[in-house]
Amino acid sequence: MIAWKNFSELKAYSRLKALKGKVNLQEAMAGESGAKRVAEYAVPMGGHLTYHYAAKQVDDEVLDALQALADEAQLTDKYQALLDGEVINTGEKRLVLHQLTRGQQGKAVTADGVDKRAFYVGEQRKAAEFANKVHAGEIVNEKGETFTTAVQIGIGGSDLGPRAMYLALENWAKAEKTFKMEARFISNVDPDDAAAVLNGIDVARSLFVLVSKSGTTLETLTNESFVKDALRKQGLDPAKHMVAVTSETSPLAKSSDYLAAFFMDDYIGGRYSSTSCVGGVVLSLAFGPDVFARFLAGAAEEDALAKCPDVRKNPAMLDALIGVYERNAQGYPCTAVLPYSQALNRFPAHLQQLDMESNGKSVNRFGEPVDYVTGPVIFGEPGTNGQHSFYQLLHQGTDIVPMQFVGFRQNQLKTDVDIQGSTSQQKLCANLAAQIMAFACGKRDENPNKSFAGGRPSSVIIGDRVTPESLGALLAHFENKVMFQGFVWNLNSFDQEGVQLGKILAKRVLAHETDGALKAFSDLLCI
Amino acid sequence: MIAWKNFSELKAYSRLKALKGKVNLQEAMAGESGAKRVAEYAVPMGGHLTYHYAAKQVDDEVLDALQALADEAQLTDKYQALLDGEVINTGEKRLVLHQLTRGQQGKAVTADGVDKRAFYVGEQRKAAEFANKVHAGEIVNEKGETFTTAVQIGIGGSDLGPRAMYLALENWAKAEKTFKMEARFISNVDPDDAAAVLNGIDVARSLFVLVSKSGTTLETLTNESFVKDALRKQGLDPAKHMVAVTSETSPLAKSSDYLAAFFMDDYIGGRYSSTSCVGGVVLSLAFGPDVFARFLAGAAEEDALAKCPDVRKNPAMLDALIGVYERNAQGYPCTAVLPYSQALNRFPAHLQQLDMESNGKSVNRFGEPVDYVTGPVIFGEPGTNGQHSFYQLLHQGTDIVPMQFVGFRQNQLKTDVDIQGSTSQQKLCANLAAQIMAFACGKRDENPNKSFAGGRPSSVIIGDRVTPESLGALLAHFENKVMFQGFVWNLNSFDQEGVQLGKILAKRVLAHETDGALKAFSDLLCI
């Protein structure tokens, strides 16, 4: 029987708080004991990646406390309940089914009178068939020309995740000769965003993928109109250039304004939708359906692993719990995500949404205020770029910022250059290894300005190469990490009520129904 | 006489700490008192922007305490000393002269036997003449073709600032018909970065701008070699395609490997170098020297304002002091930078470096540990995108994150669409006004999940449009803000010793001179 309790009501809470400052990372990571930790503190994340936590501030006692927390909070039971189709998104009274887009890890789930796995697979197949026809030149523009560019129009989860995934695989697909079409993304309601994208493409040979679950997202509909205007100005018929990704009940679902419509539903939150048609249509167009299927397989592998109740064998749950220890026992307010891979350029922006929108909350799943801190601020940029930027603060600032590194042994394009006895790829990896150790152990110097205190914890996920499979596993790892943290904090990680007030006030501004400071600011901005 | 004292030694320190929680922002911003605050709490930032701080947690008592702090810490005296050429970067025993690249706000400064203002102006003139010759087709490739693309090769401050400025003005320049050449940027030592950029351009018609002050930055030299290989493979002579931006004493300065060399010096830190030739060459190539001159003029205007000792008339100093109040009295660890302008897409990444690398330090300018927190974590993405992402945490998370908004009344490309009675630009601005008020005042709801506590402070910088002048003012505002905060915290904001240890360890990894955990991680990464 699952009990949804606040974190502070658990025995494990005070046990964990009492372990504050337990591990001296500088000592733990020094000498041969450090090498031993690196060998021992590692968990495979399926066949493509490994999660290494040797440089985190944990030892067997902390890990045992995290295991006790996992058990007491029934983390894997809750995950299984989610997989089996229970109403986990209690606020909105919805199932949470994004894992079902990539595999069946629990019981068959029926909702709205259909088997949901079959529904998601069916939509994927529709997207695959559509993409294949576009690639084969069976679906073409008015002049009979093939489409060369796919342009996703969406915002938030309809933008950040799919965009990050596209960028992550773009060069891999080019290197592997599976690249089919360029993709571009229009998201911001700032009209310069859409205008700049349209200026940079051949509009006549572009296929637009309009993504809005509700079919009412104002930014997205505005950008759709912007694009339709542009198409008409070139004498093109928008209905021949546009598909919709939406829910079956949305106004977009059966409109003749679109070449085709692909469906998702209310059981998949925007930030969890990269493996649904929200990501599937644009990624299948860009790289082919087979690549998208491989991406899903990588995610499914991690989803399966996440069912393991042993924290030492469940990388997503372990990562989640170490994060909880850092947030609630150690008191760190932020986490930096630092991929040593240019392909993962925008992966931190996706994680920023995934994590902060899921767990940036002050009330528990029953609407009661919690008496502990919840989701941290997430930020990051790819290494080595970050090293020449904000790492100064990470090394020597007054606050400690836990870090989540990601690195790969090989690059994607396989072009490289040997300078001063090493390749660029080797330099990239050498910097990653060096940073982990510099943060963990620091270094005393007689000049205090050049001294490094160390004791700055990091984990690193290591793989061979950014491929569809490893990217899928990486995505699912973080989705599941965030889910487990939400379970510990007793939050509903699947709604986002915090975005509503701004929308209401913005409508009021546009209707000129304001007074006081809101009117004053609106006047300043000349609305 | 200037005294360099720790913040905690000042009388103003305890006075400010005692003002913790002084202002109830929800009440202050409600009704007509809110409108009054919006009218009163505003400072012009020269002719192009205004800094509004009505939605910050300040009142006249807090402002008086900030004025007392500014006076006691001698902030404008210290700024004047910097302008007059004193050795402000004490650790490295260097002058700090980036303001001199855009104007002469203090005494004539002589160093290395030359008048430094004349030196910077001279280099700008060289860059302008060079750019004019490229645009006029007087400097061409081996086949006599004009160059169409400029590619900056640099990392950290040689990348983030110039890239953010390029992106900020690219569409403006296209709209205003002053656009001359595309620019691209190669920064990461991940070889996929350079490879992808080279795959996307016509290499034969590209001019590469190699930027390294020391001429020894490993990432940059590695990317230079990568590019030279690519040029040679196409039968091109690298020396006909490359210019250097470096210091006069660097190995690059007088090399025949470059068409031309443009100089900066040790008195301009990387993150402060956008107005030197580090930004000047690529921006002059992209937009023409006149546009770059207008950008400098905007920055100079803000530099002049920053000399005013009255906090209520000095926007950079006021912004700095409010930040100090938020960090040291209110105890907030992060600041979000949120431009409502797609053009400022990468401006937050530049500010992240500027701020975190300058003030993310634990020792004062004499190398003694400080007993107060210093620079915050800085992160951000453009609005409205962020609203559909991490704003959930900003609205309803357990920690308060102060915000720095930026907004403009007009967009750059002047293309727009009217949907549901308003343009995209109006929607963008309406969202900005709405967010400020939603954060400040919140809203009670009987459903606690839909309740907003409010009390989340923000400032907003408002202008007409992102132009060279307003962008220059914006850049200088933040440079000066960071400088003033460094003065308050008694830091040396102009060195970055925190980046050194990682470099040393990375070299050791590449030389295979490691043991313990560093060797173990290196082995895992197959170096």
Entry keywords:
alpha/beta, Rossmann fold, 12% strand, 5-stranded parallel β-sheet, 6-stranded mixed β-sheet
**Strand line-up across the major sheet of chain A:** 1-2-15-12-10-11
**The CATH topology of the largest domain in chain A:** Rossmann fold
Strand content of chain A: 5-15%
From the helix content, strand content and strand pairing of chain A, which structural class follows? Answer: alpha/beta
The first-to-last residue Cα distance of chain A is 55 Å
Uncertain spans of chain A, ≥5 residues at pLDDT below 50?
Answer: none
What level of helicity do the residues of chain A show?
Answer: 40-55%
Q: Kindly state the mean pLDDT of chain A as a whole number?
A: 97
Oligomer: homodimer
Largest sheet of chain A: 6 strands, mixed
**How many beta-strand elements of chain A?**
15
What's the CATH architecture name of the largest domain in chain A? Answer: 3-Layer(aba) Sandwich
Using the CA coordinates, give the radius of gyration of chain A.
24 Å
CATH class of the largest domain in chain A: Alpha Beta
At the fourth level of CATH, the homologous superfamily of the largest domain in chain A is: Glucose-6-phosphate isomerase like protein, domain 1
- If interface size is counted as residues with C-beta under 8 Å from the partner's C-beta, which chains form the largest one? A-B, 159 and 159 residues
What is the count of helical runs of chain A? 18
Whole-number count of domains of chain A: 3
Broad shape of chain A? globular
